[in-house]
Amino acid sequence: MDSFTLVIFGITSNLAQKYMIPALYDMEEKGMLAIDTNIVGIARRQMANEDLHKYIGQVLNMENIHHRHAIKEEVFNRLCDRFEYLSGEIEDQTTYDNLKKELKNKNIIFYLATYPELYSYIFEHLQKNNLSKSRTGWIRLMIEKPIGHDLPSAKALNGLLTGYFTEDQIFRLDHYLGKETLQNILTFRFANDIFEPLINKNFIDHIQITASEDFGIGKRGGYYDQVGALKDVGQNHQLQMLSFATMDAPAKFTSLSIAKEKIKIIKNLQPLPDHIVFGQYEGYQQEENVLPDSSTDTFYALKTFIKNSRFENVPIYIRAGKKLNQTATEISIVFKNPPNRLHVNFGDEPNVLIYRIQPNEGIVFKISTKLPGYETKIKPEYMQYCYRIDPHKHYIPDPYEKLLVDAMRGEHTFFNDAEAVEAQWAFIDPLAARRGKPAQYKAGSWGPKEADRLLEKDGRKWLEPSMDFCRI
Ligand code: BG6
Asked: To the nearest whole number, what is the mean pLDDT of the chain?
């Protein structure tokens, strides 16, 4: 692997703490960082290098659902040796003068974990300091979702980006695309021939996508209150999930072919502003940095359709929220019941194909089985492919680790391009415009009753994510 300098704008941000620093630790442990690779962390606060090391230690030992393994001292020390801290203002030329002294490699990745309002200053300064292009190595830019806050702002940001960088330098990151469990959906669907003929309107009754979290917004009020659930995870992570589960087979397993199929799904999604529900957990308005009369959604549930012949009239229900009953992210493909079940005892429990993104990671098929005995009694069971090994013990690479490796290799397959991001907003904008006063729901519930009604009207109900499969 090439050596490079990773520059993290916003090293003290939540993103750096929750994702990037733990991913760098894992890469260090696996020996994936070339010997000369160095890391520069930039933030405003004054901190000596030793304080930065202390901070990294705290971050690595913090409660983190995705990073739960023990921290080895020698790995931690090796990682700290790569780090240099720069305190400075993004808008200040001195920051870039200092930065230039720390660029020990001809290859550079700039990773932006700052507020988007600061991007233009960063790009401007990088260009002014001849840091946006390189003649001898490569320079790449990783920026986080959400790209913009609606379609016009996404277009403006994409325009801004391409004013300074070429498209092949830009890596628009949505960490769901780096999840092994999401990437495996494509392999499962296209490397096995038996399921794909069933994934269409003839066999599928409907599709559900759930991303529920049993925790609140924590200290992220400043960011979250401006965004809300629909734009925080609905515009991006959940649309990626949907497109992976429903796209047609790409002509080749290349970035371009996959992007082409993904985008067809997003562009064909039908926004139905009369079929969206927004919720807010009780007590949200008292969270840190949240407006006391905030109407930000911490929950949403919607219904949509894909306008293509393959999924014609197959409803898709998507929901996400904080402080819900449990933490689980999954896609459930619910199959139709055959019109003539052989025996009334067989009941009407549908088959469900579940892509469980987390926890109990796996791909499982819910089937009906006979309970052993003299009677014909039906028991739902799971045929399962499980990752089996505890993901917190590193077996499944962290998405940031995978995406950083891809960016190092210049591989764009699991990043978004401008067109994809804009298509996502084109779907979300008319729905977001419908947000009024969100319905309140109790912490620990499954969201407001209105979300249940959304399905009940169609004679369906939400599936509660099961923890009965892929237990470690
Ligand atoms: C982030 C959102 O992008 O994704 C968070 O900003 C959300 O609000 C998180 O909690 C979910 O990611 P994961 O990997 O924990 O499912």
From this structure: 93
Q: What CATH number does residue 43 fall under?
A: 3.40.50.720
On whether both 107 and 214 belong to a single domain, the answer is no
Q: List 6's β-bridge partners, or say none.
A: 39, 109
Residue 391 pLDDT > 60 = no
Q: For residue 281, what are the domain limits?
A: 177-397+417-456
For residues 53-66, b (16+ Cβ closer than 10 Å) or e, as one string? bebbeebbeeeeeb
Give nearest CA residue, ligand 1 atom 6.
232
Backbone angles phi, psi at 261, to 5 degrees: -70, -40
Going from the Cα of 237 to the center of ligand 1, the distance in angstroms, rounded, reads 8
How far is ligand 1, taken at its centre, from the CA of residue 160, in Å? 26
pLDDT in tens, 392-438: 565 678 899 999 999 999 999 999 999 999 999 999 999 999 999 99
Give the residue, out of 175, 296, 297, with the most ligand 1 atoms within 8 A of its beta carbon, to mutate for a pocket test: 175
Which residue would you say has higher pLDDT here, 253 or 410?
410
Q: Is the CB of 232 within 6 Å of ligand 1?
A: yes
Domain count, the chain: 2
Whether the CA torsion 189, 195, 197, 203 is positive or negative: it is negative
Within a domain: 170 = no
Q: Are residues 87 and 183 in the same domain?
A: no
Contact partners, residue 73, CB within 8 Å, separation at least 6: none
Active site residue 394: no
* Residues 136 and 242 occupy one common structural domain: no
Percent of the chain whose pLDDT exceeds 90: 85
Please write the tens of the pLDDT for every residue from 318-364: 999 999 999 999 999 999 987 666 556 677 789 999 999 999 999 99
- Judge if 183 and 140 occupy the same domain: no
pLDDT of residue 50: 86
8 Å CB contact between 71 and 394: no
Which pTM value belongs to this model?
0.94
